[in-house]
Here is the input.
Amino acid sequence: VEITNNTLKDEIEDLKKQLEKEQKSYATLKSEKNDDKKALQQERTKFEREKAKLKSDQEKHEQKKHELFQEKESIENLQKELNKKKKELEEAKAGLALQEKSENEQIEILKKNLSKTKHEVEELSQEKTSATKEGEKLKTDLAKAKESLTKSDAKCKEYQVTVEEKDKELEGQKKIIAELRITLEKLEKIEVVHVSLEKE
Here is the structure.
């Protein structure tokens, strides 16, 4: 009986140790599970945050594409306006053929400015697909080109007014020449009569 009791005590002690071991293992496993749950939640939060950021980036990209498309249209319209101003400049140049050398030099300067503006617009057109920073630079250069174009337009209008004034001066000269011819014809007739009288 005593041996049996000792054996039972040993078994009980073993079971207690095993139970304690299992309880520790359970607690460790439960702790690991909680850690895994926290890690999973953090990963989900990170995933949602990155997903939201990706959506925001896509929206920004679409907005940038829309802005660049509008800038492209603006550049094309500006190119059309440049062509129109170039044609007006050629017409003004033809009308200024009789003006002084200084005015011709000013036309050459105006042509250079127009060529420079056209070059700037071409550079802007090539940069229209750049990133955000390049897009901002494009807007700045475009504003400068528009300002230069406005100045060119003002110059064209100034020369147009000058041409009209020269036309008026030419009309006045034509009238004076016509009057002088009439006076000359009268004087020639008087001279003929005078010669005839002298002969008589």
The mean pLDDT is 84. The helical segments are 2-95, 101-126, 132-199. DSSP finds three helices and no strands in the chain. The radius of gyration is 48 Å.
